[in-house]
Specification:
The protein has about 200 residues and is an alpha+beta fold. The chain folds into 2 domains: about 5-65, no CATH class; about 70-200, no CATH class. It has 6 helices and 5 strands, in the order H-H-E-E-E-H-H-E-E-H-H. The protein has helices spanning about 5-10, 15, 80-95, 105-125, 170-180, 185-200; strands at about 20-25, 30-50, 55-65, 150, 165-170. Strands 1-2-3 form a 3-stranded antiparallel beta sheet. A two-stranded antiparallel sheet has the order 4-5. Strand 2 and strand 3 (about 55-65) form a beta hairpin. Helix 3 runs antiparallel to helix 4.
Length: about 200
Amino acid sequence: MDFVRGNRAIRDHALDGKDLHLFQALGKGEGYRYLGRFVCSTWEFREGVDVNGYERQVIVFHLIPPEDDEEASEPTSPTASLEMLDRLQERARQAATEVRERTPREARRRYHERSAAVREYVLARAAGSCESCGRPAPFRRQDGTAYLEPHHTRGLSDGGPDHPRWVGAVCPNCHQEIHHGAERDEKNRGLQRHLGVLEEA
């Protein structure tokens, strides 16, 4: 099996800014059950049998339900040097796009590592100012770092593809407005446009 069409779409969904929605087949004529939104953490090759009964190599994707772990984000210095920011960006992009062959045991650990790398980078990229409204963070943490919250601009809930192109660092006010405000869709689209400019540079 190769990483083309559907297989590539599953492996590279975060890079492409797409969500993965999983459905379970209930049997012939019974329809499907929606299981929710998942992320592809890792994958592996295994030996399997195709519809004609022939043995062949198959790709098994390790899909994990995303967790709402934005509140657990680690503080990052708002005055990161350009060299440090470049290193964080490279690490975040590599973590977000490098869906590699792994065992199922490694899948969840890899997902958390990827999320942490993206969070650390986007908070440093913001340099202490909200990437939505442009204002300085409303307060500082006890360690002196600016308080901003990572927001996934893609997805049905506060989650979405873990890639710097789709994750912004926003103040709590903008974060709540994006989720609950009357103009939330336009505000979220505005943030997406801004992130596109930042990550194209």
